[in-house]
Amino acid sequence: MTIDRRTFLARASAAATATIAAPFVGSAHAQAPQFSFKYAHNAPVTHPLHIHAAKACEQIKEQTKGRVVIEVFPNNQLGGDTDMLSQLRSGAIHFQTLSPLILSTLVPAASISGIGFAFSNYDQVWAAMDGELGAYVRSAIGTTGLVAMEKIYDNGFRQITTSNRPIKTAEDLKGLKIRVPVSPLWTSLFKALGASPTGINWADAYVAMQSKVVDGQENALGIVSIAKLYEVQKFCSETNHVWDGIWFLANGKAWNSMPADLQQICAKNFNEQALAQRVTNRKLNESLESELTAKGMVFNRPDLPSFKKALQRAGFYQEWKTKYGGEAWALLEKRVGALA
To answer: Which of 1.40.20.10, 3.90.580.10, 3.40.190.170, 3.30.420.10 would CATH assign to domain 5-155+245-286?
Structure first.
């Protein structure tokens, strides 16, 4: 079945509103919760991440007969990404969904999936992230006292938007003031391309563009649409420069406080909804160019080889190969081919 964008958003918004208003409708035989947890993330309630993750939380309550209740806090209600990560580590919140590129401030290996112009398509992405590379990263996350669910959610391939000029080749990025998430890899990527990146948490990004602190940003089209970035950005250059995922993370002490049967129910639902969210999110991102064009954005398809060549000349790939180490780099190149 196909639905148009208007119908999709209407249904998504209705589902999200229902989730917030009455997030946990359990069995008639539900008992008082044995485990009450908080889950926080940065996405609006209409985004596929929130819709599917909130559904997982509902199903967990039903399938545990009320023993596990997870309250959902969307849209940066509990702070920006780095603030929420600190809360997750301290146990103030118990679950968080987070980009691996931001998680890399704590777990450096996490950002390897965000190497610029590495993945060409989703077949490569899922072969790596559901396979050996994903297992390698989850193991590294585990050393920090956090637990990562097996299946990573999808944020999508990221595009560059700007208020002042389209980006047609790597040369056009020189001197561009661009917002990037607080991530060493993202900063390094855009510096290697000649831009002037500024790390800004997502909660503050719109105001930074509106006030011209930065002239551009980069994100998947779903975020561009839902966050109404077309109000402050004119051009969208379809670079597909980075694939970005979203790890579903648990505080290790909170996770281990549950018996194995409840852990199994939680992991099963988080992972199943990750697979469903991947489909929803991809359809959303692929449907948006015409809608954003109608709202005034101007799209172009850049000369992609110029960007990869610029990164190779700048020594970007060799630098990050050294930082990640041979084992991790080999797992990446096993799926995407030689980079350095």
So the answer is: 3.40.190.170
pLDDT of residue 182: 87
CA angle at 334 for the pair 267 and 286, rounded to the nearest 5°? 65
- Cα–Cα distance measured from residue 111 to residue 105, given in angstroms and rounded to the nearest whole number: 9
Residues 6+ apart with CB under 8 A from 328: 109, 112, 133, 136
Task: Kindly give, in sequence order, each residue whose CB lies less than 8 Å from that of residue 336, ignoring residues fewer than 6 positions away.
Answer: 118, 119, 120, 124, 128
In 10 A of CB 306, how many CB atoms?
Answer: 16
What integer pLDDT is reported at residue 340 of this predicted model? Answer: 80
Domain boundaries along the sequence of the chain: 5-155+245-286, 159-241+294-336
Spatial separation of the C-alpha atoms in residues 98 and 82, rounded to whole Å = 9
pLDDT at 32: 86
Q: How far apart are CA 20 and CA 77, in angstroms?
A: 13
Q: What integer pLDDT is reported at residue 31 of this predicted model?
A: 63
Q: What is the pLDDT of residue 136?
A: 98
Torsion of CA 329, 331, 274, 45, to 10 degrees: 10
DSSP 3-state of 241: coil
């991790």: which residue's tokens?
A: 328
For 7, phi and psi rounded to 5 degrees? -65, -40
Any bridge partners for residue 73, and if so which?
40
pLDDT average per 10 residues of sequence, the chain (340 residues): 46 42 40 93 95 98 98 96 96 97 94 96 98 98 98 97 97 97 92 97 94 97 94 98 97 98 98 98 93 97 96 97 97 95
Which CATH number does 159-241+294-336 carry? 3.40.190.170
> Which among 181, 235, 244, 237 has a CA at the least distance from the CA of 208?
181
For the chain, the straight-line distance linking the first and the last C-alpha, in angstroms and rounded, comes to 43
Q: Which residue bears the tokens 């015409």?
A: 290
